[in-house]
Amino acid sequence: MTKFIDVHHGMVGITADQLREAHEADLAIQGEEGVTFERAWADPDQGFVCCLSEGPSAEAVQRIHERAGHPADEVHPVPLTV
Q1: How far apart are CA 16 and CA 11, in angstroms?
Q2: pLDDT one-digit tens code per residue, 16-66
Q3: In whole angstroms, how far apart are CA 48 and each of 16, 19, 43?
Q4: What is the per-residue pLDDT for 81?
Q5: CATH of the domain at 52
Q6: Considering its fold, how many domains does the chain have in total?
Q7: Is 28 inside a domain boundary?
Q8: pLDDT at residue 7 in the model
Q9: Residue 82 in domain
């Protein structure tokens, strides 16, 4: 499985509760695409959210986000970590 970081723009003012709800919506259906969402971060002032996941493809990650109601603007594979 590959790690992915995805980015959502336009989320100015997102709250901790909203971030948690969005993450939980992903978790509720992630298994249907073989994706595991690990963590999410947000900068409410800049309006972006980043998520770390593992899955079979960027398309699978995007499908979960779309079905959960918050499609990602970018999905990037992260093949190297230390």
Answers
A1: 12
A2: 999 999 999 999 999 999 999 999 999 999 999 999 999 999 999 999 999
A3: 13, 11, 6
A4: 86
A5: 3.30.70.3090
A6: 1
A7: yes
A8: 98
A9: no
